[in-house]
Design goal:
The chain has 148 residues and is of the alpha+beta class. It contains 2 helices and 11 strands, in the order αββαβββββββββ.
């Protein structure tokens, strides 16, 4: 009698373990599908950088426009900007602090890469962050945005 109860518990635990494993696999699959296609690289002066992207409508629309080969203009000795031909959806917030490597959208069509950190009162829509961005000169630069 006790042996039968132990076998039932073993079977129940085994079934629960299978349910948990299947649930984890399905969860990871959904996460991967949701993030599919939302990877970006930035090439500056023939050096490739990975970008950590925000999860918003602006990023989704920008990804649809890739690849972009842009000549970005310097401004204020801390940023490179380019006015896109197409307007993007915005979710503008007061960022307060910009970090070196941040990619933002100013208004609805001005793509900006910040190459120095500083405080700001301006509002931007967050796009992402360039990992390990090297120092950039104050000259205009060629930048390629592409899918990762």
């Amino acid at each position: 009698m006790i042996l039968i109860k132990k076998k039932r518990w073993v079977i129940i635990i085994f079934i629960l373990l299978i349910i948990v494993i299947v649930g984890i696999i399905n969860y990871k699959k959904r996460i991967k599908e949701n993030n599919k296609g939302e990877e970006m690289i930035v090439i500056i002066d023939n050096k490739t950088y990975e970008v950590n992207l925000e999860n918003n409508e602006t990023v989704k629309k920008l990804i649809e426009m890739l690849p972009l080969d842009l000549k970005m203009t310097s401004l204020n000795n801390n940023e490179k900007y380019y006015y896109l031909d197409q307007k993007l959806p915005i979710n503008e917030i007061n960022i307060k602090h910009i970090n070196k490597g941040d990619i933002m959208l100013y208004q609805d069509n001005c793509l900006v890469i910040f190459y120095k950190s500083f405080d700001t009162t301006y509002g931007y829509t967050k796009i992402g962050h360039i990992n390990n961005l090297e120092d950039l000169s104050d000259d205009d630069i060629k930048v390629i945005f592409d899918k990762g």
